[in-house]
Design a protein that fits this description.
Two copies of one chain form a homodimer.
Chain A lengths: L3 E6 L2 E2 L2 E3 L3 H5 L2 E9 L2 E2 L2 H15 L6 H12 L4 E9 L16 E7 L6 H5 L2 E10 L14 H7 L8 E6 L4 E4 L3 E6 L2 E5 L9 H9 L6 E5 L3 H6 L2 E6 L3 E8 L2 E2 L4 H10 L10
Parallel strand pairs in A: 8-9, 8-15, 12-13
Antiparallel strand pairs in A: 1-2, 1-7, 4-5, 4-6, 6-7, 9-10, 11-12, 11-14, 14-15, 15-16
C-alpha cells in the first residue's frame, strides 16, 4: 500500500468527497494510475484516452479533459519519482441507480509515494499464484478501468507476502489478467496476451507493447488463452504502469526461465530503469 | 432519485468521507436501504443480518453492530415516513488492492425522503423492460449487497420514465432479478424466484416472503429460471424494502393480469399500506 501524500478534489487541496457521491454509492466512475518521472506524468495521452473511453462507456460527460491534463502535469511538477492516481466519478447522486440529469462529475487527484520494488523482480522474475476467484463476464464493462474492483480486492486476499501477483481466470476458465496487471505469455518467440472483450482491464503498458512489438520485430497475438497455454508457455510476464514489466519465475507452481525476449523488453517498459534507478 | 436530508459519517453529522476511502476506490463495502415507518426502521434485524453476511464475505471486521443498530433507531426516531441508507466500507486505504492490516471501517448513515409511488402501481401493476445488459457470474459476490453496482447503473440507463423496473438476466441467460428489486413469477398458484448463488442480491422482502409463504399456504420455489418461464407465467412481481411489492402488468411486452395470489401479498409486504398510507 502506498500512502496518499496530497489529495485534490475538483482542483482544490481537500481530502474529502461528499458522502452522497455515486463513486462511493455504486463505484460509478473510472480511475487511472500514472507513473511520474522527472516531474512528468508518463504516457499521459494514453491514460487520458483510456479515461475518456471509460467515461464514454459509462455515459459520464462534462469532464474537462484539457484542464485535467494541465492539473496532472502541475501535480507531477517537481517530483523526481511519484505516482498519480486520478478518479473521475459521475458526481453526487444520493439514492437510486438512475443517473441524475444534472450530474456534475467529481475529479480526485492523489499524489502518492513511488512504490519501490526490489531489482531482482526485474532480473529473476516474480512468483505468482493462480487465484481461485473467477472474474464475471461483462462486455459492457470489460476493458475500462472502472471503480467496481471487489473481484480484485477478494482475489488479492488469497495471498500475503509469498507472491507478488495473482493470475485471474474468468467464469468460463479463460485466462484474463493479473490482479493488478496484464499478462503476456511467450511461445516460440511470439507473445500471447488474452482477449479482453468480456473481462479485464486494457492496461496502458499492454497497449504500448501491442503497438510497439512490430517495431521491435516481435510477433504478438491477442487471443483466448487457457491454463494449458500457461503451462505450455516458455515464459510469462505481468505489466502495468507502476511496475513496468515483471518477468515471472513461478506461476501456480510452474517454473519459467526469463527468456531473452522478455529480458529485452524490461528496459523498454520499466519507468526509469534505463536511467538506472531500479538497479 | 431521493435527496439526502442528513448524513452522518462514523456517528458524526458530517457530509463527507476521506477521498482515500476504499469504498470509493474499489466499491469495497456493503450497503442497506431501510424503510422508516412511525419512527422505526423496518426489518432492522434482517437488514443487519444481511449486512453482517456481506461484511463476513468481504472479510471486513470490527464493525460494532450493536451501536450501528442503536444509531439507525436514533436516526429514524421522530420520522413518520423516511428511508435510511447505510453504507459500511473497509475504510481508508490509499492505493493498492491489498487490504491494510489496520483498516478501520467507515460507516455512513443517510436519512432520506420517503419515495412516494402512485397507488396504481400496487393495484394495476407496473411496466418493466427486459434489459440488454447481462449480469456477470460471481459466486463470491452473489447474494450480498455490495457497492459494485455499475451493472445496475448501466442497466438503469436503458429506459427513462416509460417503465418502472428492468429485468436482468445473467451472462448465461438465466433470469436473476430486477435492477433494484427481486422478481417472483406466479405459475399454477406457486411462486417461483431465481436462485441467486451466482448473481443477484438476496433482498429482505424476498427473504421475508420465502419465510412467510408456508404460513400463508403458498408454495414457493427457488430455482433457475429462464425467459420461457417468464413468458409462461400467469403473473409476476418485483419487491424491495422501499417499494414493497409491485405487481407487473407488462414485462418486455408480455401482458399479465394481477393474480389474486399477488393481490393478497401486496398489503402484507408494502410498508404502511395496511394503514392506508398508499391509497
Amino acid at each position: 500500500m502506498t500512502s496518499a501524500t496530497e489529495v485534490w478534489v475538483n482542483g482544490r487541496l481537500e481530502p474529502a468527497v461528499p458522502a452522497i457521491d455515486r463513486g462511493l454509492a455504486y463505484g460509478d466512475g473510472v480511475f487511472e494510475t500514472l507513473a511520474v518521472l522527472d516531474g512528468e506524468p508518463l504516457d499521459l495521452d494514453l491514460h487520458l484516452a483510456r479515461l475518456k473511453r471509460g467515461l464514454d462507456r459509462l455515459g459520464i460527460g462534462n469532464v474537462p479533459l484539457a484542464s485535467l491534463r494541465a492539473e496532472l502535469c502541475s501535480r507531477a511538477a517537481g517530483h523526481a519519482r511519484a505516482a498519480l492516481k486520478l478518479i473521475v466519478t459521475r458526481g453526487a447522486g444520493s439514492r437510486g441507480y438512475r443517473v441524475p440529469a444534472a450530474a456534475q462529475p467529481t475529479r480526485i487527484v492523489m499524489l502518492l509515494d513511488w512504490p519501490e520494488y526490489p531489482s531482482h523482480y526485474y532480473e529473476d522474475g516474480i512468483s505468482a499464484v493462480v487465484c481461485r476467484l473467477r472474474l464475471g463476464l461483462n462486455p459492457a464493462l470489460a476493458g475500462i478501468k472502472h471503480l467496481n474492483r471487489l473481484e480484485q480486492v477478494l482475489a488479492r486476499r488469497e495471498w500475503n507476502d509469498e507472491h507478488q501477483e495473482g493470475l485471474l481466470m474468468d467464469s468460463e476458465g479463460c485466462v484474463i489478467e493479473g490482479v493488478m496487471s496484464n499478462v503476456f505469455l511467450v511461445r516460440d518467440k511470439t507473445l500471447l496476451t488474452p482477449d479482453l472483450a468480456r473481462a479485464g482491464v486494457e492496461g496502458i503498458v499492454r497497449e504500448k507493447l501491442l503497438a510497439r512489438a512490430p517495431q521491435l520485430g516481435i510477433d504478438v497475438r491477442v487471443q483466448a488463452l487457457r491454463m494449458e497455454d500457461v503451462s505450455q508457455a516458455q515464459g510469462a510476464f505481468f505489466c502495468n504502469s507502476l511496475i513496468g514489466l515483471w518477468p515471472v519465475r513461478s506461476l501456480g507452481g510452474i517454473r519459467y526461465p526469463v527468456p531473452p525476449l522478455v529480458r529485452r523488453l524490461v528496459p523498454e517498459f520499466v519507468p526509469g530503469l534505463a536511467a538506472g534507478r531500479n538497479s
